[in-house]
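--- STAGE predict ---
source: upstream dedup step, 1 unique chain passed
mode: sequence only
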Amino acid sequence: MKSKATYLAGESFAGQYIPYFADALLNSPTFSGFPLQGMVIGNGWIDPKEQYQGYVDFAYEKGLIKQGSKEAETLEQYMQQCQQQLDKYVNPADVPINVDQCGQVMGAVTDPFIQDLNGNKVCMNVYDVRLSDEYPACGMNWPPDLTDIYQYLRRPDVVKALHASDKETAWVECDNIVSSQLYLRNSPASVSLIPGILERGVKVMMFAGDEDLICNYKGIERLIDRLQWSGGQGLTGLPVEDWYVNETYAGTWQTGRNLTYVRVAGGSHMVGYDLPEVTNDMITRFMDVDMSMIVGDIASIPSKLGDKKRPQLGSVSGILALPSAGKSPLGELDAWYHAGSAIVVMVFLISAAGLYFFLRARNRFAKSRISLEPRPLQDEEERVPLGQGEAHEMGDYRSRPESFDEGNHKANSGNGFARNGYDDGQVVFELGDDDDEHNGHRLEHSQHT
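--- STAGE serialize ---
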């Protein structure tokens, strides 16, 4: 791995994990000189102090709540209570991942959309506000393709391509062992790590589908505006370029001091699911892939930022392109390598959906699936903040594939397994091969207290 450019990518609650992983790699004596080139976070939960207010901004801008209305009064009241808690944290490094008294804010946005329709109770899909869902799922039934993901990630060729053959059991959506290893009881919000990562020369891209409520673009724009690094604050004053893919408006693009922010037009919480071609263009642009040296249909899709068109190659799929004048075959191989890396990043983005669904489902109480209502204050579970409603088991809304082995994987037991045996100050995750454990080469990254 030390000879290969590496990018970390994820969505949703991975907005906490990805910066922690990157920070650990950059500061690891075991991985000194590790070629971490960049990290990508899509619709991520990164900075509670700014993103809770993002619910209010988003609701007004999208017209979900009308300013001056009774619903707006309720929303503002909950936000005021939330802000009183947020104001207690002066140092960004002290802000927790989730803040007591703030869970009601998103619920104040979604509550007006709970209604009876033809005898069925329906609600807003919090992951795509253009859609509705049965209550109290409110988005947990979406997207409907989990069975296909099970089949795909269990194919032998896919398992081999992902170098996951050492794992004896098949892929499942939710796994309590993964949960326990990634438990963040005392860690502050990851936003405090991002300036240092940027200043170490690592490129960072934050993108946001603009139809997502739960980790919406308004909150992400707020956190970027207040982020300070490399002698400046945010991306203020830097050009915002219109972005087009296949001659269709895809959103806006802004870059400065190693940070790129992309607002994806028409994207939901899972942009890669909604807009795969747009996502491909976004990822390969960020990774500086030379599309003029790549063959296949995907390389022939035109795109541009502002008035600058991206080089492309309109060729027949499967026909190897000759290098352009002045470009060596080695450069061509390098382009192919980066394109392959981009595909891996895409797989990570899609696979991150499984982790994201898992984190939504975890709860210390049995039969917990989604809480669209403020959870009890004693519930310290790490989670993307949710609004109002009932708690339900994931299995109530989404059936597992017939091949799922309940005996080997009790993935959604909801029994609070992740809590067992964890004391304050215990290891969050470890870097290094298991084989090196007894040789003293294991790096331990401890939780912040």
